[in-house]
Amino acid sequence: MIQFRTWAGGLGVAAATMVAACVGPTASPTEGSPPPEPPRAASVPAPVVEPTPVQAPVVEPVGPAPVSVSIDAIGVTSALVELGLDADGRMEVPAAPDLAGWYAPGARPGAGGPTVIVGHVDSVTGPAVFARLSDCDRATSSGSVSPPAARRTTESST
C-alpha cells in the first residue's frame, strides 16, 4: 500500500505539472505588443456652407389699430399710445402713469394672436392707470371700427 500511495502521489504531481505546461502562462498572447490602432476616418474636409440671409416677409397689419381701452369694473378709460421696442430691445412703456399703451408690432384686436396692452400700476405720485387691474377679468378695447373687442385679462406683471 505504501508503494501505491507513493505512486499515486507522484502521479498527482506529474498530472499537475502537465496541466501547467499545457496551459502555459496566464498572460494573453498579445501582451507586450502595442494595441492595434483604431481605424482612421477619411481626411476629407467638410465643405463650408455660407448661410444665405433670408429677409422676413413684410406682413401687413390686419384690422384697425386700437385707440383706447376701457375697463368698467375698475373705472379705467384711457387712450392708447403706440409702443415699440427701446434701444435695448425691450418693450417700451407709456411715459405717463395715467396712459395705457399698445405694442404696435404685435397683433391687432380681432386679427388672431395676443394684442398687448400695457400700463403702469403705480408711480412715485401714487396709483397709475392699471392700479386695480387684478380686481377684474375683462377689458374692452376699441379701434376705428365697431364692435369693440372684449378681451379677458390673462396675465399682469407688477
TrEMBL record:
Superkingdom: Bacteria
Entries under PROSITE patterns matching the protein: PROKAR_LIPOPROTEIN (PS51257)
Molecular-function annotations in GO: hydrolase activity
The name this protein goes by in its record: Sortase family protein
Signal peptide: 1-21
Native organism: Jiangella alkaliphila
Ranges where the record places region Disordered: 26-48, 135-158
InterPro entries xrefs: Sortase, Sortase_dom-sf, Sortase_F
Keywords noted in UniProt: Hydrolase, Signal
